[in-house]
Amino acid sequence: MRKADVERNTKETRIKCEVNLDGRGDAVVDTGIGFFDHMLTLFSFHSKIDLKMVAHGDLNVDDHHTVEDCGIVLGEAVRKALGNKIGIERYGSFNCPMDETLANVTLDISGRPYLVYHCDLTRDTVGTFSCEMTEEFLRAFAVAAGITLHVNVYYGTNDHHKIEAIFKALGHAMKQAVKVTGDTVSSSKGVLV
Q1: What angle do CA 101, 104, 109 make, to 5 degrees?
Q2: Which CDD domains does the entry mention (predicted)?
Q3: Rounded Cα–Cα distance for residues 132 and 134 (Å)
């Protein structure tokens, strides 16, 4: 089983995260931000990556530190669980419709972190989750995991639906990319750094 746990403690946040890449999509998430908990649970369900995450952050300030640091910790846990990456598919892509919204997430577990993000959000918040933190979470996750991540919301009018479609598509793309289908590294260079 490809499992990992990561803990991060700063003056702003205390976070514990466990992942199992070969799980069933079971999630136990408590960040203190209801909508964000819902999104991480959806990511877990659709990726089939078991996820346990408990975060205590300075929510009296705002949600920025908690959401960004959760992205860092989740990315570090995924990277650690992937190990030497032998046999993984490496690439994943998924179009997710969510009512009037259509979003695509395409990724490469390349070792070269990068985020391309195209999503126009008009609301400030969904619940107590700041909409601008969607991009910050994705960037933190991509950098810490070593993933090239492209996120495109083609159209939509409801910001809840746009963000939800992103997290579901991310889950499905990760499920494809982490799947073990061979016994060599999926790179002509012979290594995924």
Answers
A1: 155
A2: IGPD
A3: 5
Q: Report residue 71 as tokens.
A: 């992205």
Q: From CA 16, how far away is CA 52, in angstroms rounded?
A: 8
Domain count, the chain: 1
In 3D space, the residue among 164, 46, 149 whose CA is nearest the CA of residue 106 turns out to be 149
Q: Are 149 and 81 within 8 A, CB to CB? A: no
Query: pLDDT, tens digit, for every residue of 19-72?
Result: 999 999 999 999 999 999 999 999 999 999 999 999 999 999 999 999 999 999
- Encode pLDDT of 57-113 as tens digits: 999 999 999 999 999 999 999 999 999 999 999 999 999 999 999 999 999 999 999
Question: Position 178: which residue type?
Answer: V
Residue 183 domain flag: no
Structure tokens at 155: 């159209």
pTM of the full structure: 0.96
End-to-end CA distance of the chain: 21
In a domain, 189, yes or no: no
Contact 150, 106 (CB under 8 A): yes
The DSSP symbol for 132 reads: T
